[in-house]
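Work package 3, deliverable 3.1, input record:
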Amino acid sequence: MLDLLQKMFGKETIGSKDIAKERLRLVLVHDRINVSPQFMESLKDDMIKVISNYMDINEQEMEVNLTTSKSTVALVANIPVNRMKRGCTLED
Amino acid sequence: MGEVIVITSGKGGVGKTTTTANLGTGFALLGKKVVLIDADIGLRNLDVVMGLENRIVYDLVDVTDGNCRLKQALIRDKRYDTLYLLPAAQTRDKTAVSPDQMKQLCHDLAEDFDYVLIDCPAGIEQGFKNAIAGADKAVIVTTPEVSAVRDADRIIGLLESEGKEGPKLIINRIRPQMVKKGDMMDIEDIIEILAVDLLGIIPEDEYIVISTNRGEPAVANPVSMAGAAYKNIVRRLMGENVPLMNFDSQDGFIDKVKKMFGFGG
């Protein structure tokens, strides 16, 4: 019925496979984001290791999260810095 | 040592059991010694698809519980000398077997057989974990539908987290006419989304219904398109380089004749 109406008003009907593909793409973005707590912990630990080479950070207050909007996913980290490490700024 | 291959999908009804039956029969047609394990405990079906339902004495759980020897539970398919079935228990549930027991079982069978094919139950719970435990390789069956592809993606993730890398994909029940009209996702669409290797494509084929009714896998039928596609997959699993089936030539007279003589697909 919708197809018929679209045809009557001269609209190009797109194949439903494109709709399927786009819906699938979006649903998988969200599905794939459901990572385990262990995954997030191990990511956090690695981040701490790297960042600690450059600055002292407050590990207790640190927050690392994956956030999703309608079509994108972002890794958002909020890391309070206690102080910069002196040596690093001099090295190069 | 033979190769242990699990056939899985996540979603139910996409053709795992049909695929297991056809690949198994296909291997046997080429003279390979093959055993099919129905890992769907409580909902066994591979026996009826194979037409062997009247010959079951012992089942998988009888073997793991030690009620019988492994050899006693194997049913030999009288039509093909080298084809065997280990049926699932019907009156037990998935918790009757553990992943470690399945690993041992697969290991024991791989010593005697060229190929051990495991028909995995739908879902991602213990039945799935049991079915993949002893597998060297995984074959994922999907159909060109949003729900089936989504579940396949989940399964690929779970297989990876269990250390089973490089699963191969079978896209089942493709309807070339609908693909042509743009009303069904095509092979490229699905491969792009799932980012896995393609093992083969199976066209929608009425003969699958008929062959399931009869308990005779379609792969043994010379005119079934799906049967020919399964034959190709069997050869690919054996390491041969077989080009994908071309559905466009579906109705040509010459192709029909070729298929009759086993050259098609």
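Strands of chain B lie at 3-8, 34-38, 75-76, 83-86, 115-119, 137-142, 168-174, 197-203.
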